[in-house]
Amino acid sequence: MRTTSLAGRLIPAGLITLSFVPLLAGAVRLTEFAGGVADDRHTASALPLTVHIVTVTLYSLAGAFQFAPGFRRRRPRWHRAAGRALVGAGMVAALSGVWLTLFSVLPPGDAGLPAVFRVVFGTGMFASLALGLAAARRRDLRRHRAWMMRAYAVGLGAGTQAFTQGAWIAAAGPPDDLTRAWLLGAAWLINLAVAERLIRRRPRAPRRSRVRRRRSEPDAAGLVRPHGDLDPVADPELGHQARDVTLHRAQ
Description:
Elements: H1 2-18, H2 20-35, H3 40-44, H4 46-65, H5 69-74, H6 76-103, H7 113-137, H8 141-155, H9 157-172, H10 177-200, E1 223-224, E2 233-234, H11 240-250
Antiparallel strand pairs: 1-2
């Protein structure tokens, strides 16, 4: 019980922590829009960018609690209702990210391979959510959980990208455009690899409780009545008395 309760707290906390950097960047961008200090490139795509930031924030924060096992068991109705809303938010986040990649003005270094990665993984996120929703409607909860984990792993790609790029900068300095592109792609692949590992992990077999056996004792008739047996058994230590009683009962 304590292990489940601890996991119910650590899983959402870890997922929210992973998404902290991109959510902070999104909050800063919304603050710039509200204050009228955003640059021309972001202002030109203010509406789709705002939609993307809001839906990603909702999907990342509320979606983290969907993977807490105790929370799902205690609040199944909330899990289902929030799941429907989060599927919609995730789909809008994926499509708006693809739209921004294809139709907005990209900063230097974001065209080419990074754009290909964003379109591929954004499309994959949308498809995973659709497949997860279809599985839930079929009551196929195992596949539903698997597809939702894959979609969420892609959705948290920006959080892992902060770590992959930060580790590279700390070790080798700022990356060039090609290296940065592969660091972005590696973050999505890392998330998906972790998700697949969790999906394919076999559940632990329940631990068998140890039952202490009590020594069987003869009753007043000289018969041993072992625990769990329906018929009495003669005790050889009682000699002919036990055999006589058994023979008498057989007659």
